[in-house]
Specification:
Elements: H1 2-37, E1 49-53, E2 57-60, E3 63-66, E4 72-73, E5 80-87, E6 90-98, E7 109-113, E8 118-123, E9 126-131, E10 140-145, H2 153-158, E11 162-163, E12 169-170, H3 173-204, H4 207-221, H5 225-244, H6 252-276, H7 280-288, H8 293-304, H9 306-322, H10 325-330, H11 348-355, H12 362-395
Antiparallel strand pairs: 1-4, 1-10, 2-3, 2-5, 5-6, 6-7, 8-9, 9-10, 11-12
Length: 396
């Protein structure tokens, strides 16, 4: 009776834990996808926003703000913003006329003021009005932030320029190309080597040496990616620079070599486990028909283990596409479109890691969109490989 109660208790406990795990994962995915989709459907704000700098007290359209450190939101249909604040013995005035029908941010605002001011337009959708002072660091400033309209999804995916701070241009095609080229190169180099190593360990090496090498490979799989990146920075980057006589070794080729090294342990471990799981009777049948050990390993054992081998390749691809730290250290991180392996590139993951710390507003939303794009790329690649595996299995 007690055993039955215990079994029922653990059955429901495991079910509840599994349910909460699925719900938590679903919530995370929905949050990321919602954040990634927002830039293409929603403006950054309903109306104009103001940020006061070094102004302790100001009045905006009759409303008093004292030591206000956040955004001052202006209602959407407002056509005139009147700003007043004390400056010494004077009262500074600034009136901003807003043309709500104008789409061009350069023509949307018109300013009038009672004293000399400097109006700068350092980046899209942001004006800065400053009142001169004896020291530049003491200038009083008001930043007028215009709402950014929804971004075009096609421009995002196909654009070749990434200028999030200056002109609010978000084109990630060079990063997509850099990610795919680095991953494809790593797969083309790493997977054949990994399969040959797995075949050698499973079919030709004696059990005791194989167990030692297997332990070493598993140890390599646990090394943090930053260690691989540091190795690449200190060894591979100087090697590429010296061999090809180029100014910098931080190139696509360096990234490919590092990623190929990183996926080797994962693919070798899974492929070798799958090869060893092939029944001995399959090998004996092949050998009894006159096939050599090499022919048996290559044409009989490997096809029988293709399901596990392809699973290892999928994990290798996922690691290559999703790698961040190692690529940051060796790829050069220039967001340029190139197929030259001796030039610098930037990947999607590198962009997220390098810019998320200081990004805000539309820039931050676009980094979430990059994450959704990366997830979609991995999903598509894995789906293609799984489709190919089913096709191969159906033909056997």
């Amino acid at each position: 009776m007690n055993r039955k109660i215990t079994d029922i208790f653990f059955k429901h406990l495991v079910s509840i834990i599994a349910l909460f795990s699925v719900l938590a994962l679903t919530a995370i995915l929905l949050f990321v996808f919602a954040q990634g989709a927002m830039p293409f459907f929603v403006s950054t704000s309903a109306g104009v926003r103001l940020v006061a700098q070094r102004i302790d007290e100001l009045t905006v359209n009759g409303n008093l703000y004292v030591e206000h450190s956040t955004f001052i939101d202006i209602p959407k249909e407002t056509e005139l913003v009147s700003i007043r604040f004390p400056s010494g013995e004077d009262i500074e005035t600034l009136d901003i006329a807003i043309d709500n029908n104008e789409k061009d941010p350069l023509k949307k605002l018109k300013f009038s003021h009672n004293n000399d001011v400097n109006i700068t337009y350092p980046e899209s959708y942001v004006y800065t009005v400053s009142w001169p002072a004896a020291i530049a660091s003491l200038e009083k400033r008001i930043h007028i932030i215009l709402p950014e309209p929804p971004y075009n999804a096609w421009s995002f995916l196909s654009g070749i320029e990434w200028r999030p701070s200056r002109d609010k241009v978000f084109g990630i095609f060079p990063m997509i190309a850099g990610t795919l080229l680095a991953s494809l190169g790593a797969i083309l180099i790493g997977v054949p080597i990994a399969l040959l190593c797995a075949l050698f360990m499973a079919e030709f090496l004696k059990p005791k040496p194989a167990s030692v090498i297997r332990a070493g490979v598993e140890l390599l799989a646990g090394i943090p990616s930053v260690v691989y990146g540091f190795f690449g920075l200190m060894v591979i980057v100087p090697f590429v620079r010296g061999v090809f006589d180029i100014p910098s070794g931080n190139t696509l080729l360096s990234a490919i070599i590092v990623l190929a090294l990183m996926i080797l342990p994962t693919v070798i471990t899974i492929a070798e486990t799958s090869l060893r799981a092939v029944p001995l009777s399959v090998r004996e049948a092949s050998l009894s028909l006159g096939a050599s050990k090499m022919q048996t390993a290559w044409r009989v054992v490997l096809p029988h283990a293709n399901s596990g081998v392809i699973a290892g390749v999928i994990l290798g691809i996922s690691r290559a596409v999703g790698e961040t730290m190692a690529v940051i250290l060796v790829a050069g991180n220039s967001p340029q479109l190139t197929i030259n392996p001796l030039e610098s590139v930037r990947t999607l993951t590198s962009t997220i890691a390098m810019e998320m710390g200081y990004a805000s507003g539309r820039h931050s939303e676009m980094l979430f969109s990059i994450g959704v794009t990366l997830f979609s790329i991995i999903l598509i690649l894995n789906s293609v490989i799984l489709w190919y595996r089913r096709k191969v299995e159906s033909e056997l």
